[in-house]
Amino acid sequence: MLNTSWTFIIGWIFLICRMNPVEIIKLKRNNYPLTENQIKFFIEGYLQGDITDYQMSAFLMAVYFNGMNDEETFYLTDIMLNSGEIIDLNFLDMPKVDKHSTGGVGDKTSLIIAPLVASCGIAVPMISGRGLGHTGGTLDKLESIPGFNVNYSVPDFKRIIKETGVVLIGQTGELAPADKRIYSLRDVTATVECIPLITSSIMSKKLAEGADGIVLDVKIGNGANLPDKEKSVELAKKLISTAKKFGKKAIAVLTDMEEPLGRNIGNWLEVEECIEMMNGSMIPDLYKLTNVLSGAMIFLGGKASGIDEGEKIAGQKLIDKSAYKKFLEIVKIQNGDVKYIKDWSNLKRGKFKRQVLASEDGFITEMTAMDFGYASIELGCGRKRVEDKVDYLAGIILHKKCGNEVRENDIICELYSGSETKLESGFNRLKDAVRISKTKPPERKLILDILD
Ligand code: URA
Fold first, then answer.
1. pLDDT tens per residue, range 372-393
2. Residue numbers annotated as active site
3. Spatial CB neighbours of 75, under 8 Å, sequence gap ≥ 6
């Protein structure tokens, strides 16, 4: 009698040569490791149109349930990276550093960090994503600025970064095309929360853009794409080791995502909050996270002796408005309406509005980030199907944060949407998101750890 592991090995050897999409899905579904050639066949077949969206969705779900080992994750990343061009930025005589977040609610730091770090003489080539699952995306936020273009060819990408030291785009048909297609499918098929899929998605973009160093903001908490703390730490380590395998410097900052970051959730609302902060408003958690991540980038770019010194430089660039001036330069060169930005305090909001009020006196002990994320999708900030259009003026403004004292009927947050029905759904989604207690909760730590 053959024992189970021999049966497994013989079964795998028997199946290893199969190059039929259905058989590859079946292999992963039955928890066999895939070869480099099988992953290549599947990803390339998908990009060429030989493998359909429904087959890719089934494959992603099989990976979600059964995972991938280190080798498979490396092959997947490499194949996704090489599905497009890899940009060489060596013509820039300056350090090149980028940052990427694993995804959070109200997480808008990229919009401040990119211009801020560029204003320090470090080039920031940033390829970002759209909303993913219950988390928002930099591209949707940027596109809430009328005219802002996130689709550039490689020559234009190089021209823009040469002129301004920074460029913010999305995956294109030329740059990380596999991630472009797979990312939008994962968004609507509940296949986001998976270490190999997150690693290959993030790293295929970050390795294509030509940066020498990458700072990774790995979120931990109910609003993160991996709510489990151990899994988030594993993801941070995997991202760093993948970056190093490809010869890049990397730092991972582990940060709390139990409550939404900052005050605003929603595409334009988040841009507005960033503009406010770049013009001197103090939003404590957003300010802290922006400074630490920028500090780590300034350090990786060799312009500071450590993250602490980098943080001080970052704080200065916010105060002297260098970050804001660079932000306006980006908007202008990427075809965005600068007048719309300068007019930001003219409060652009969805037509319909509702408030969530405190049900009793006490202290706010919980504002569940995940619920706020899903509520924002209900309001129209994200997608439920690939082809959905987002509502740029929909969103949520938080008047209170965890730890704040409230009186019964105080406004906790305001919800906006262009549709009355969506407003109602968003409101209903928030019913259990806020908890109030008579005792003040201990202060939460925002920066949980830094790994390199
Ligand atoms: N950001 C990405 O680019 N991809 C993911 O899978 C998660 C966050």
1. 999 999 999 999 999 999 999 9
2. 100, 179, 186, 201, 205
3. 34, 36, 39, 40
